[in-house]
Amino acid sequence: MAEKLTIDNISTFCKSKGFIYPSSEIYGGMSGFFDYGPLGAELKNNIKQAWWKFHVQDREDIVGIDASIIMHPNVWKASGHVANFEDILVECTKCKERYRADHLIEEALKIQADGLKADDIQKLIEQNKIKCPKCKSALDKPGAFNLMFQTYVGPKQSKESIAYLRPETAQAMFVDFKQVVETARLKLPFGIAQVGRAFRNEISPRNFLFRCREFEQMEIEYFIHPGSWEECPYVDEIMDHEIFVYSAEMQQKKEKGKKMKMKEALSDGIIKSPWHAYWLATEHKWFVNLGANPNNFRVRQHLPDEKAHYSKDCWDLEYNFPFGFKELQGISDRGDYDLQQHIKHSKKDLSLFDEETKKKIVPHVVAEPSQGVDRAFLVFLFDAYNDDKERGNIVLKLNPRIAPVKVGFFPLMNKLDKEAREIYNCLRKLFVCQYDKSGSIGRRYARADEIGIPYCVTVDFDTKEKKEVTIRDRDSTKQIRVQVSELKNVLYRLIVGEVEFEKAGKLIK
RNA sequence: GCGCCGAUAGUCUAAUGGCUAUGAUAUCGGCCUUCCAAGCCGACGGUCCGGGUUCGAAUCCCGGUCGGCGCACCA
C-alpha cells in the first residue's frame, strides 16, 4: 500500500468491475450523472438497507416515509430554495469571469447585498460604476442561476405549471409532519426518516460520485420539545465514544483537532448540546460498524460565518477523502425555522399539543443526521480497497453485511461441477452467491477478492465421502472445514458477524 | 461557467501523415489442473462525436462531448 489511493483509482476500478459507469456512455456520457452497475446496485442497496435498519427499524423513536420527488412548488418558496438557490451571477464582458453578484456588491460597496433582486443589482452596478475586479472591464447584465431542475406538470407549459425536482429530501418531513405525527402516534422527541433521490443542477460536478447532479439522500429530521435542548435521553450510549474533534475555536487558533471521548467534549463545553454529541457519535458509529476506518473521520464545528442564520450550532461529520476532508453530514440545529416557514406559507397549524403545559408548541429540529448515499458508497469503497502486492490483486475488504456478493462457490476441479452446483443451488436463495469454475482455483479466489466476496466455498473430492467443504476467508486467506449440513448456518453467522472465522469450523494448517 | 491540459478494445498501452492500428491484461469457449492470478489452443473487442485539410488522418485544423487540474460555485 505504498502509493496513495486516488479518486481516479476508485473510479477506474468501479468501471472495470461493474460498480459504476458514466451515465448514457454510448452517447458520450452526461456530466454529473452516473449509473450503478450490477455490483454497485447491490452494494448501494445494502448500504441503504443497513441505514434504514439502524436508524428506523431498530429504533422506537424514528419512523420512515417515502415522499414524491415532485412536490407543490410553494414548498420550495417556503423553504427558501427558490430564492436561495437562485444565485445571481454577473459576467465580465471582456475576461468572461463570473461573480456571485451579492458577493461582488458586498465587496465593492461594503453593504449587505443578500437577497437583492437582479434589477436592484443592476441599478447598483450602474450607479456605482462597479467594474470587473480582475480586468476592470464593464460587467454584463446580472442573471439568475437556479440550482433546482425545473419541469412542467400537466399539458400546458406555462409559468403556472412550473414544478421542481426536489433539491433535498428534507422538506417532505416538514410538509408531511402533521400526518405522520397523527398516524404514527409519535411523542417528542422523535424523528422522521427518508431515503430518496434529490437533484441539483451543479455548475461544476467534480470528484466522481462526490458531487453529482442526481444523487440519493438518507435523511432524518429529529424533533424535540422546544425547551429540551439539553436533555438527550440517549446520551449515555455514546459518552465513551472516541472521535477526532475540530471545534471552531481550534480552527480559529490554527490548532490541530483532538481525539477525545464525547463525555470530555461535553464537559469541556466544546460540544454544547448532548443531542449533537449523540448524533455525531451515533453517525460515526454507523460508518465504523459497517467497516469504515474510524481514523478517517473527524467532527468539525462550523465557523460563526458559515452557519445558516437560523442555526444555533452546526457540526459536520467529515471524511478524509484523497481530495481533502469533506462533509458527509451536517448535524445542524435548525430550531423551528422550517415548520414555521410552512405554517406561514400553508396557513396550516403544524403545532403539537403539549400535555404538560397544556399549550400548543412547535417542535424544534435539534439535528438532521442526513447524508448522501453516493458519498457513503465512496467512503466504504475507499476504506475497503486494498491493493495487495503480495497476493498480486486487489482485495476489497467490505464488511460482509454490505458486500454485494456474500459467497463464492467453486468446484476444486471441473469434474466436481455437479456436486458443487448442488450445494450452490441450495444456498443461492439465501445469500447473494456466485458460481465460478473457470480457471485455476487461485485465479477464482483472486477474482472473488477483487469484488469483495467475503467467503468462498470449495467443493473437493472429500465432499462426497466426508460431507465436508472448505470455506476460505477473504481477508486472511485462512480456511476452515465444515459439514455441508452446517454450511447454511455457519455462513449466516459469519456474514452477520456472530462468530469469528477461525472458530466457525476446523481450521486447516 | 471561465482558463490550461487530455481522450486509441472492459482496463493499461504502442503507433508523430502511409502495410490489415501494437502489446499486455481482463472476459468468453476448449484442453489441462487435487486450494491461492501455472500452462497450451481458440474467440470476442478499439482510434469519443461531427465537420474540414490531404492522394491518404488515430496523428494536422475547427466545433461539440466527456475527463483532469486551477479559478469560481458548493442548499
Task: Provide the descriptors you would attach to this structure in a database record.
Herpes Virus-1; Rossmann fold; 3 domains; 17 helices; RNA-binding
Explain what this protein looks like in three dimensions:
With 509 residues, the chain is an alpha+beta fold. It folds into three domains: 248 residues, Bira Bifunctional Protein, Domain 2 (BirA Bifunctional Protein, domain 2, 2-Layer Sandwich), CATH 3.30.930; 61 residues, Herpes Virus-1, CATH 3.30.40.230; 103 residues, Rossmann fold (3-Layer(aba) Sandwich), CATH 3.40.50.800. 31% of the residues lie in helices and 25% in strands. The protein has 17 helices and 27 strands. It has a six-stranded mixed beta sheet, with helices on both faces. Strands 3, 9, 10, 18 and 19 form a five-stranded mixed beta sheet that branches. Strand 4 and strand 5 form a beta hairpin. Helix 2 packs across helix 13 and helix 5 packs parallel to helix 6. 35% of the residues are buried. The model has no long low-confidence stretch (mean pLDDT 89).
